[in-house]
Amino acid sequence: MPQSPGKINMADVARAAGVSMATASRALNNETGVAEATRRRVLAVAEQLSYVVSPEASRLAGGVTGRVAVVVPHISRWFFATLLEGLESVLRGAELDVLLYHVDGIEDRHDFFHRLPARRKVDAVVVLAFPVAEEEQRRLELMGVTIIAAGGQHAPYPNVCINDETAGRQAMDHLLFLGHRRIAMIAAVDPDQPGDLAPPGRSNAYYAALRDAGIPIDDRLVATVNWGGSEGADAMAQLLSQPAPPTAVYAHSDEVALGAIRTLRRAGLRIPEDMSVIGIDDHPLAELTDLTTVRQPVREQGEHAGRMLLNILRGEETDHDVVVPTKLVIRGSTAPPRS
Known about the structure:
- The chain is about 40% helix and about 15% strand.
- The protein has about 350 residues and is an alpha/beta fold.
């Protein structure tokens, strides 16, 4: 009967790989004096057995690593880059090195988590802004190190995030307060993440706000697209093709909202006189384009996650779940509907 991962030790790895304990140790710790073919064989066996070097043994052998692994789905998008910037600034100030793992797409993500137990030469793992499936959680926990999350709510680890439903209600309540009753939603999903893990908060806010206002749900006023400006533009064209177009649009993000505005302007419609538009996030372009939005403090979430991690590594008390507040920022893209 195979042993459970918690009972696997280095002797098991060495025996299965056909090498001595000393060779297995050098291979697993990436030390010199091991042939590359032997190193690959030992690492393959360790992965197969889900063997993880004991953190206590690592500390006895050479102290803490001084490294933190950061897992992020996108590094070119403003939100993720800003979140990472805040986190890295705090960790750098504490003289911790950041190892960045970019899991861009379903295949990359699957490969990363499959190989995860071999990535054990870190003191902690920070998961940035994507929900972690149950099997992925199990792979993370095999590492035996501290795990925290930032920028997303769907994680069983200490985490820092906003409440997406609250942010969505702030946007919707603003449009309802202005007097809009025919409100469309452009819902955005990330095509690079599993669909069953998509955070529902911003969509839930739309339906709850309409129900609370006594407004019937019209599915023709909901367009779901992949995340991005061009996709927002296409969704707006779809909404304008309805026999009775909306008077206001609630977009899941500012990038999507700005794409919608492009379509509206090309159609000869004025904003906000003919159509109000609101987004979420307060992207740097939102202020430049006078877009009404709901601001979330992105860099601050990264910084807070960094401080939370340092407290845990030092054995100090820290909050497990931190929800940072969002704020409605009224600019020139929203106004009462025309009579």
